[in-house]
Amino acid sequence: xxxxxxxxxxxxxxxxxxxxxxxxxxxxxxxxxxxxxxxxxxxxxxxxxxxxxxxxxxxxxxxxxxxxxxxxxxxxxxxxxxxxxxxxxxxxxxxxxxxxxxxxxxxxxxxxxxxxxxxxxxxxxxxxxxxxxxxxxxxxxxxxxxxxxxxxxxxxxxxxxxxxxxxxxxxxxxxxxxxxxxxxxxxxxxxxxxxxxxxxxxxxxxxxxxxxxxxxxxxxxxxxxxxxxxxxxxxxxxxxxxxxxxxxxxxxxxxxxxxxxxxxxxxxxxxxxxxxxxxxxxxxxxxxxxxxxxxxxxxxxxxxxxxxxxxxxxxxxxxxxxxxxxxxxxxxxxxxxxxxxxxxxxxxxxxxxxxxxxxxxxxxxxxxxxxxxxxxxxxxxxxxxxxxxxxxxxxxxxxxxxxxxxxxxxxxxxxxxxxxxxxxxxxxxxxxxxxxxxxxxxxxxxxxxxxxxxxxxxxxxxxxxxxxxxxxxxxxxxxxxxxxxxxxxxxxxxxxxxxxxxxxxxxxxxxxxxxxxxxxxxxxxxxxxxxxxxxxxxxxxxxxxxxxxxxxxxxxxxxxxxxxxxxxxxxxxxxxxxxxxxxxxxxxxxxxxxxxxxxxxxx
Amino acid sequence: xxxxxxxxxxxxxxxxxxxxxxxxxxxxxxxxxxxxxxxxxxxxxxxxxxxxxxxxxxxxxxxxxxxxxxxxxxxxxxxxxxxxxxxxxxxxxxxxxxxxxxxxxxxxxxxxxxxxxxxxxxxxxxxxxxxxxxxxxxxxxxxxxxxxxxxxxxxxxxxxxxxxxxxxxxxxxxxxxxxxxxxxxxxxxxxxxxxxxxxxxxxxxxxxxxxxxxxxxxxxxxxxxxxxxxxxxxxxxxxxxxxxxxxxxxxxxxxxxxxxxxxxxxxxxxxxxxxxxxxxxxxxxxxxxxxxxxxxxxxxxxxxxxxxxxxxxxxxxxxxxxxxxxxxxxxxxxxxxxxxxxxxxxxxxxxxxxxxxxxxxxxxxxxxxxxxxxxxxxxxxxxxxxxxxxxxxxxxxxxxxxxxxxxxxxxxxxxxxxxxxxxxxxxxxxxxxxxxxxxxxxxxxxxxxxxxxxxxxxxxxxxxxxxxxxxxxxxxxxxxxxxxxxxxxxxxxxxxxxxxxxxxxxxxxxxxxxxxxxxxxxxxxxxxxxxxxxxxxxxxxxxxxxxxxxxxxxxxxxxxxxxxxxxxxxxxxxxxxxxxxxxxxxxxxxxxxxxxxxxxxx
Lengths: 603, 602
Prior knowledge:
The complex is a heterodimer. Chain A is an alpha/beta fold. Chain A contains 21 helices and 12 strands. By secondary structure, chain B is an alpha/beta fold. Chain B contains 19 helices and 10 strands. Chain B has helices at 18-30, 33-70, 76-124, 127-132, 135-177, 179-226, 228-233, 237-289, 295-336, 398-404, 428-433, 449-453, 462-471, 475-480, 498-511, 528-542, 554-557, 577-582, 586-594, and strands spanning 357-364, 375-382, 387-391, 413-418, 421-422, 435-438, 516-520, 546-551, 562-567, 570-575. Chain B has a 6-stranded mixed sheet, with helices on both faces. Chain B has a 4-stranded antiparallel sheet with strand order 2-1-4-5, with helices on one face. Chain B starts with 17 loop residues before the first helix and ends in an 8-residue tail after the last helix.
């Protein structure tokens, strides 16, 4: 059993590793699309690049200046020149300061702005996609794209600009040392490939070890999270000791992985230092011979010693940039994948705002399917008159919720027409549709914010109007018992409210929209009989002057409707009032007679 | 019997000085004597080899320079220097390895220890504790704060010694080589170190703000995605975009503020460094010209100065890691030092079997500050073979009663007796093992179905698991899955419906083979048919056991030997179904609500 669990854990670890790894190679298309985001900041980017170049020059000039000072001022005992060079060095320090400030600030600022632009674009795009996309995608994956991947892509910009500086550094140093003394420069250049080879050999291994440690660490966090969340079950089942052992085992595994990573992290020091030492001793010996031979000035030798360190740094940085680039490519793919999802429901050309005065709804030969050739609704013909209350019932999967979604055009129908006050839904603007339909959904959604914010949502309503709506649905009393009444901040997903209370709030929210059509999509299914009765009362009041569509699987909820539509397998089986349906002796009658309270009890 | 509670367990207690937190962490590190010793060997080895290098390089320059003047052809001195440079560099690498590796190892040890202790503490904490402290809060302590302490151990502990020694030795050597240059170098260390520190602390503040703002952004996005239907239904797309952009703007603004602070700091530090460098060359140069100093000495000074650059710069980082360790340590130790309020240790009576459970005038409230009790004056009796039903409106106190029997909470007034012995005198773990409480909310662990069902006894044979699953009417479903009982559930596995989860919870408790069953609204997500058939299959098991069924549904409890009707925390009616139907009370109202046929059609 234990090994079984471990295997499952490994599965998770591997999935995380793969996700982190995703070594996708350089992709021109991703890069080209990314460049478009830089365009608005062309000027700033140019300033950034210039300051990177200036900075690089400033950094590299200092050893040169030192060399020049030693060779021309100090060894030649020229105090006057020394003073002039001192002023020159101060000048370089100021240039160093200014260019360093500008490069850091400008480049990172552009990076942040690009990040903002991409995220904002993604979010806007998400708002335009139809419900069918939302149904299909896991929100966790969208979250990680919008938050995580965008961050990685922004890194690409920074790494790219700084890489320019590093390459330039490498180039200039090479030129300088060759012009100073080619034989010593050649000696150093011979050591470089060894260093580069070492990095290339070491980096992927170290990365893997780090990723493994990170993955097993997130397993530890996952188990901790699970055990904290399940603490009540654990104490109930007296499994504290077993859980502790299992947790400790994960911790031990992670400990080993972290030590492995530490080995890689610190193991690189001896060979690197050895190489640096080799290079320096090469300069000392070669330089010593040359200096004593008179073919090399002592200042050059000092300059070489000063350049050695600077030569290793850009190589180190460049190999790091490369892994940033790899990660960014994978992120870029995921981001553009999301942005490339087609917006499948758009306002048609010349679409006008819908005008709903009465609130009658008509379905004409409507067919609908989510997936090709899997019909959900078949030939639906339905007429709902103004101010009528219609109950939709049927077993799970019969298509009752789909009908409600189609009235709001959450999905595109395959054929047929849906008309509200004789206006075809496909010919009106989507935004005007939302203004004219109020919906209460099965899962009451609470947004973070105050009670009032939640009832208002986006409506421009006064406190009085909010209270009025709240009183009507019967939520006013419990709101007043909250610590700050309507100004009480609701915790994450309204955790400090019961589900019934949350549902009442979403009721009030729908009411505030004050539209002619009111849809309740299984809004009472999680609610106990008491609260339901309370809501029912409110509903009678609300629906007096409105067209109401109530979807329910409890018969008691819709018994009093003007018209009850019985659905099964995407087709309308029966339509009629409660009494008529009982006389029909069909599906409805069968349920009623068996004294079953809901359609789900059928089978 | 009041439970003694500190005002708030999460209050940052003032008694603990900040320094004691650091001392406590350092003490934890020193428990690993061998690793600490190795770490110190690494630090001092690294520093000595680091300091030797400039001397060797300076000497090399001088040797080479002398050769020009003397015209000597003896280069053995240069070769010896070259070999010394190589060996010192190699040693430096090795010591750096020893230092970093052991430093990280200690950090890993400590974070592992802390994680284990943290887990253990949470496992032993009471329901009340977990009710009060949000999981997110606990998790951030268990992950982020342990990470903060770990970071301090890796970056703060040895680095402090390394940096202080390097700075001291570096300045000493500079002063020894030339005291005037030493003074100049000192003039560099002070502004740079203070800029680094002030900057870090400012950045820390900004970073905290960004984190907060980012979590708002995160919530915005998450709510938008979860509430997509509401957004669409209300046409709130533009409103949502505005909301998202405005919270994103906050993050961006503060990030850019941080960038400014950071850019100012690092470029100022760079400037000071170069400025002092120039000053040293200038004064040193004049000294060389005046014959007060050799070129080699000047080179040495420049290299010493270069070496001081890094430690001075990371002073800021270190101060940051100290500050972080203090906040993290404070939050962490608060949890680790908390005491479980229902003790399980002291000598208690062991019971072999629960024969009778009695509630005598029991009163209880969840929050000490509530004005009224959540349940009051409860009297009831559970005995083998008897089934008691409990019904009442939501919030009437039904679940509270079920939580008091396994002593997840302590009663406030009155007492509960098990086999005539007060509950508080009974040893806790054996007691809980004899109670099968199927609670309202089923929690599934990220594991297989088999593990989840056999949760109380992971070593149980599969036949027993299947047997329980059959009684709970979930076997057929499990058997239809491709991996059957080895199917993963939870976050990474198949998702189950509410009814399926409830049936697993029932099976889980059947496995426990308890003396008493408590079903706390655990049939609510099942349709009436399944509900009934499970209850029928349970009957043979219940013969020798006491049973308490809590439900909102009349049909679930109508057959009970005794039905208790609760309202507002009190038992208002009791009797059999037929008795209760006959009186005009809550029971009758509920009964009519749930049987639409009995209602008048308007």
